[in-house]
């Protein structure tokens, strides 16, 4: 495969072959390089490598052939120049902020981001003198009004977690560009199999490889994708601070990328059917899924995405008590906060993924007590529905 010109191949081919560089052993599967360091030919060569005068492996904290293979394949799928792998999705966010921002800068963030993103910004990043402003994801006027002279970064997830609100990426890119700021989009829920934010004007893309890219709940990892220029500060932070992806995890994620597009199609099909089914259940008040025609973000999602994803949110009648009873009654579905797994997972966001937010922040993000989030796996749809039907029956008076 011509690795210098990935555009000549289709996405399914890139998912299987992009980035691989065979060793002298001529291995067919990607090699796993479990080494912390590398041997140099001479003292002069070592000095040149450390000074970035020669491109090559230096230390696995920031240069490793297996990790590089994963980075190149993910970048190819996103249509990007480069990717930088990190130890987790949260480490990817941290690396972008620490690489690009300084004291006195401002971040404008959609208010319905993942709970840990809120905590990272509020409890850690704000301590360094960075101002954080939250706005509704879909309110473009609010984004424009929040822009100040010190605005350096606009950050959002789309679709959002767990209400599936959809950002107009092109419009946000225009706002960011006019402000001289970067637009950073968390693409965790869609992955490059369903959405490529760079095509719509985003500057950087965040991934939690832990989720759908792995696909089987095995390893932690993250990545930042974008241009070589914008990733240089991120690389510098990862090299110095060390929130690096391990070679073994990168090797697992490489295998996940090979089947990502196939899995996402199956996830989407089952999630669409489950969302329609949930709407017919008496104990369910509301269903959040962008694939539903009357969802406020449906048309925009259909434009930006090639599928609506695997995550379905729904509100049960009876608040937290009813939601907990539902979760405790499920026999097949896994009660866990992870998502993007072949196994269907179910969780109560208000007391788990978003539990560290203040009551006001949860209310603003629409995380009500009766809200339940499902990440639809690859089991038989009829079995998922049967498990939920039995659990929902427990909520009837």
From TrEMBL:
Question: Which PROSITE patterns does this one have?
Answer: CYS_MET_METAB_PP
Q: What is this enzyme's EC?
A: 2.5.1.-
One example of the protein's molecular function in GO is:
transferase activity, transferring alkyl or aryl (other than methyl) groups
What the entry lists under CDD domains is as follows: CGS_like (cd00614)
Record-level GO cellular component terms: cytoplasm
Q: Which reaction does it catalyse?
A: O-succinyl-L-homoserine + hydrogen sulfide = L-homocysteine + succinate
N6-(pyridoxal phosphate)lysine modifications at: 211
Q: What class of enzyme is it?
A: transferase
GO biological process entries: 'de novo' L-methionine biosynthetic process; homocysteine biosynthetic process; transsulfuration
Source taxon at top rank: Bacteria
Q: In which pathway does it act?
A: Amino-acid biosynthesis; L-methionine biosynthesis via de novo pathway; L-homocysteine from O-succinyl-L-homoserine: step 1/1
SUPFAM superfamilies from the xrefs?
Answer: PLP-dependent transferases
Give the InterPro entries listed for this entry: Cys/Met-Metab_PyrdxlP-dep_enz, Cys_met_metab_PP, O-succ-hSer_sulfhydrylase, PyrdxlP-dep_Trfase, PyrdxlP-dep_Trfase_major, PyrdxlP-dep_Trfase_small
Q: What does this protein do?
A: Catalyzes the formation of L-homocysteine from O-succinyl-L-homoserine (OSHS) and hydrogen sulfide.
What family name appears in the similarity comment? Answer: Belongs to the trans-sulfuration enzymes family. MetZ subfamily.
Q: What is this protein called?
A: O-succinylhomoserine sulfhydrylase
Species, as recorded: Gammaproteobacteria bacterium LSUCC0057
Underlying gene: metZ
């Amino acid at each position: 495969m011509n690795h210098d010109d990935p555009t000549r191949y289709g996405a399914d081919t890139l998912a299987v072959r992009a980035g691989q560089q065979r060793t002298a052993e001529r291995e067919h599967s990607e090699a796993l390089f479990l080494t912390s360091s590398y041997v140099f030919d001479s003292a002069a060569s070592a000095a040149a490598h450390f000074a970035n005068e020669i491109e090559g492996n230096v230390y696995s904290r920031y240069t490793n052939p297996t990790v590089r293979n994963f980075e190149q394949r993910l970048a190819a799928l996103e249509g990007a120049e480069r990717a930088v792998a990190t130890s987790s999705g949260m480490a990817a966010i941290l690396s972008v902020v620490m690489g690009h921002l300084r004291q006195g800068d401002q971040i404008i963030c959609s208010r319905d981001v993942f709970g840990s993103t809120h905590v990272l910004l509020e409890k850690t990043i704000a301590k360094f003198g960075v101002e954080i402003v939250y706005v509704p994801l879909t309110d473009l006027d609010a984004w424009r009004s929040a822009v100040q002279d010190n605005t350096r970064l606009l950050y959002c997830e789309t679709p959002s977690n767990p209400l599936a609100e959809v950002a107009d990426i092109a419009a946000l890119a225009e706002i960011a560009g006019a402000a001289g700021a970067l637009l950073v989009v968390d693409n965790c829920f869609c992955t490059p199999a369903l959405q490529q934010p760079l095509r719509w004007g985003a500057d950087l893309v965040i991934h939690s490889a832990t989720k759908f890219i792995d696909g089987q709940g095995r390893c932690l990892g993250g990545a930042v994708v974008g241009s070589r220029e914008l990733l240089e500060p991120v690389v510098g932070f990862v090299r110095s601070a060390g929130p690096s992806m391990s070679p073994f995890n990168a090797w697992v994620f490489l295998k996940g990328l090979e089947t990502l597009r196939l899995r996402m199609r199956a996830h989407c099909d089952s999630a669409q059917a489950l969302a329609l089914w949930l709407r017919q259940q008496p104990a369910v008040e509301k269903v959040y899924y962008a694939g539903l025609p009357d969802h406020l973000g449906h048309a925009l999602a259909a434009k930006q995405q090639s599928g609506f994803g695997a995550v379905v949110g729904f509100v049960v009648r009876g608040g937290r008590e009813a939601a907990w009873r539902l979760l405790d009654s499920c026999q097949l579905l896994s009660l866990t906060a992870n998502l993007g797994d072949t196994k269907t997972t179910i969780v109560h966001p208000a007391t788990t993924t978003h539990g560290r937010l203040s009551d006001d922040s949860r209310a603003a993000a629409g995380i009500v007590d009766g809200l339940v989030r499902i990440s639809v796996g690859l089991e038989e749809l009829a079995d998922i529905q049967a498990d939920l039907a039995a659990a929902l029956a427990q909520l009837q008076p």
